[in-house]
Amino acid sequence: MNETKLPATRRRDLLKGVVAAGGAMTVAPPAAAAVVASCPLPLDAGARRRLARALKGRVIWRGEKDYETARGDAVYRANKPPRYPAVIVLPENDQDVVIAVRFARDHGLKVGRRSGGHGWSSAHLRTGAMLIDLSRMQDVEIDAASRTLWTRPGVLGSYINSMLTPMGLIIPTAHHPTVGIGGFAMCGGFGWNSRLWGNGAAHILAVDVVNAEGVLIRADETQNQDFLWAARGAGPGFFGVVTRMKLRANVLPKVMKVSAYGYTADHLEAIFTWARELVPQVPPYLELVITSTAHDSKTGERVPVRFTVAALAICDTDEEADRALALLETCPVLAQATFRVVGKPQTLTERYLSGMAADPPGFRFACDNMYTNASAAELVPRLRDLFTDLPTPHTHVFWLSWGPVKPFPDDMALSVQGEVFLGAYSLWDDAAQDEAMEVWPVQRMKKLAELSVGGQMNDENIARHPQRYLSDEANNKLEALRERHDPHGVFLSFLRSVT
Ligand SMILES: Cc1cc2nc3c(=O)[nH]c(=O)nc-3n(C[C@H](O)[C@H](O)[C@H](O)COP(=O)(O)OP(=O)(O)OC[C@H]3O[C@@H](n4cnc5c(N)ncnc54)[C@H](O)[C@@H]3O)c2cc1C
Prior knowledge:
- Helix content is 29%, strand content 23%.
- The chain is built from 16 helices and 19 strands.
- The protein has helices spanning 8-21, 31-37, 45-54, 67-73, 94-106, 157-164, 181-186, 194-197, 225-231, 268-278, 318-325, 348-358, 376-379, 383-388, 434-447, 472-485; strands at 58-61, 87-90, 111-114, 130-133, 140-143, 148-151, 169-170, 204-210, 216-219, 241-248, 250-251, 255-264, 286-295, 302-315, 339-345, 364-372, 396-401, 420-428, 452-454.
- Bound molecules: flavin-adenine dinucleotide.
- Flavin-adenine dinucleotide binds at residues 76, 113-120, 123-124, 134, 153, 174-176, 179-180, 182-184, 186-187, 189-191, 235-236, 238, 241-242, 359, 458-459.
């Protein structure tokens, strides 16, 4: 969550971009594309044509028209990874996915899967593989009476909520409007009121999956439970293509209010010591975050690092919201706040716009993260560099009070959490800075490694920082299930190397 406001014209442009492109950006092909395009494709022209003829949807082999646009559209960030699938499949329906997976299995192609394309590491984009991009499958069916819905995984979370909220329902989605519901929920998913209602993964009731045999199966509490367990948090480690997911919805609370306070970096130690000690008191319907960034929200120009302590209360009464938000008034440097917004009513659209302002389309991005249970005495002296030494104006660092921690049930792969979440996000626009900016968040998190209890899969950067994203037990179970359900390794798993 971020209180940054974009100028009205820029906000309109961003929203137009979201609607037109589902958040995806296209780019000019990098020079390396020409080199890869000249490498021989793994299959003869006849086999390639057979796949295209068999599908209702689109099949684009490397070197064909629109390949580079489709490759670029499969990744939200502007620093498109130099990885070139042999073929990109854009299915229109379940049968297309079945045909594509069978073709891949029969011809020795590994399969990557893309829902909304916001996975920071773009684990779905691999050289020589088949990329199944589910963005053309967009149907959502809501059963308001049972408070459940079936959705395609490539549907934007914000779009689902735009359908649910008029019915008095809501699901946790990413705070950014263009993130797909598929990757969000399958990686764990910290969204609206997740401390109260549970993570995105905990909202998955069932999934339709094309498995490694190329068979469409349903996984729910009564059948194929291994697939349901893995869909709830295994992220890129999942051994199938999810083509539909059934989600539980929550009753839309009546009140949504935000408070935000600005501080200079002088008060860093006081603010984080207070925030760390406050964690046990933060009610589950309050999302308390601290962000640092260094750009002017109107011009984008670099300014001295500033902190925003902000909290969003989503609950049923003004009294509950105001009581929870009053916690922010206990900050010991409150009198030094550079601005105050107190108990401002919010709409969900305003919250999505705020999320988009923090990570606008068009930027180059990299991230890394960790959970920690370290005490204020251990943690706070280590935070100054992380939060104040920001390499570009839009780079931001994020603290989320996630505790008091409720243990995750063991019917989900999702299994790592800690009392405080720290995320570092570098944003830049000059390709010459790519290497330096891509390693910056990782270097910062690695410096705190001994305080980490593991990372959150949604913001994973396994290739550069192979930390613990699942508990040892869940990780062992996942590896055993993948061996059982995908013994020939049809599906790509976690990205272990950036090339
Ligand atoms: C700007 C921005 C803001 C974000 N904000 C939040 C936030 O507020 N809270 C939060 O929790 N996370 C947030 N995230 C992280 C986001 O939730 C994850 O990156 C998530 O994986 C993105 O989902 P997606 O469907 O868009 O991505 P994708 O890139 O399509 O999916 C990510 C990975 O999941 C696997 N996968 C996806 N779809 C399928 C499928 N149908 N079947 C099998 N495997 C599949 C693939 O391995 C894929 O590489 C944010 C990310 C960005 C870029």
